[in-house]
Amino acid sequence: MSSSPLACATCPVRDRAACAALDGAERADLARFGRHRLLSPGETLFAAGEDNDRCATLVRGALKISASDADGTERILSLVHPAGFVGELFAPLARFDVVALTHSEVCLFSRREYEAAVERYPALARALLRRSSEDLFGARSLMAMVGRHSARERVGAFLLAMAEAASDSPCHPAARFDLPLSRAEMAGLLGLTIETVSRQVSALEKSGAIRRRGLRGIELVDAAQLGN
Amino acid sequence: MSSSPLACATCPVRDRAACAALDGAERADLARFGRHRLLSPGETLFAAGEDNDRCATLVRGALKISASDADGTERILSLVHPAGFVGELFAPLARFDVVALTHSEVCLFSRREYEAAVERYPALARALLRRSSEDLFGARSLMAMVGRHSARERVGAFLLAMAEAASDSPCHPAARFDLPLSRAEMAGLLGLTIETVSRQVSALEKSGAIRRRGLRGIELVDAAQLGN
DNA sequence: CGAGGCCTTGACAATAGTCAATAATGGTGG
DNA sequence: CCACCATTATTGACTATTGTCAAGGCCTCG
Known about the structure:
By secondary structure, chain A is of the alpha+beta class. The first copy, chain A, has 2 domains: 2-135, Jelly Rolls, CATH 2.60.120; 149-227, Orthogonal Bundle (Arc Repressor Mutant, subunit A). The first copy, chain A, has 6 helices and 12 strands. Chain A has a 5-stranded antiparallel sheet with strand order 1-2-9-4-7. Chain A has a 4-stranded antiparallel sheet with strand order 3-8-5-6. The N and C termini of chain A lie far apart (43 Å). The first copy, chain A, binds a DNA duplex through helix 6. Chains A, B: Residues 18-89 form the Cyclic nucleotide-binding domain. Chains A, B: This is Transcriptional activator protein FnrL.
């Protein structure tokens, strides 16, 4: 763990995160009780069941929000990208795990102080509402995707989504990118087993839709095949 | 369709809906541009793809939020209970269908006017944020449930959830209740087929967990069996 | 009373899961 | 820098669960 004061001036998500809705003085106020923190891959930011006393904005990297059964199998409920907000403002206990997928940076806040800021600054409340609505849409879209599709379709759609997330230009998938998730994590996200994910990736390579570049690298050859 | 002015004074959800955060004058302001509307079972409130110019609070009854594939199979993404809010404030087009499951009553608002009220009344923004956060939690819980459980467990958990929703006392499932969903809707919600749902309900009856009372009626005999 | 829509049940097929062995990768320490 | 080890991924054989197709029953509403 590492922690230091905020540096909003150089923040890469300063125009997109919830705090972008604040003006200079308000943002400075919020910055006073936030801490910057670095996370290593696999490091847990929040753990289900623990006291829910913090929240955070993701600045760089990627997080997962997940739930684990009694038997230890993990179900990934959401991926968090930069500018995303994590933490449940109204629950006494954290109900899901939040874990870094890659080296990541967050702005960490005390939940109590953040909630006070939400009361004080209506623009912050509205910005969070907007973000929460988008997360809700994302959760429902994922549910619609996982619900009624074959393993092949899920893996294909996931690869396409990751290619789009990896690209700088919106709506144009990157031709080549590295998966930020292990097979186990892909399986947890898509509601499949590791073996099935592996087989489907192999099948997609055999059918010429993609090429693998090492374990995590993916090269799109025929993106259209991923969509069906 | 039926439509008439609001009657907040006698509204059964006036203490729990988003508008409960407003004081008398503010609520009266909101009420001026809301309309009361009755929905019959199966009636569509909002349709995916159409202009997203309205939003609503559910007063009585039950709604479903769903998405339909190209081939027409429906995936239910959420059930909406009284005091729930439906509508996406920040999207230009509606992205999901919202349909009444039972005879229902909603307060219907123009999205533009509702958004203006959210700007004007910070308490409304915070109340919607709270509700949106809860919906997000609900969506993720459903995803966690559907993700890694057998057909039997899904149906059992669903029946238990419905029994709890049907009960007045919280955390005590009703011993007897009517399902507000058809088999097709249950299948769409749980990510199964109609046949599988039917078989699992039959199996739960054979194993003594429940008894069926007509097509939609369920009597809990051994609720513990539903949880495993 | 008849018709149509749900629901149930059965037989079979297909998809994904389980168990198990092997291969590849990446990190660590000599 | 290389070798070894632990972790992760791939592949195969087999099983089990669920989906598909089809037929028949039940209830509800005209």
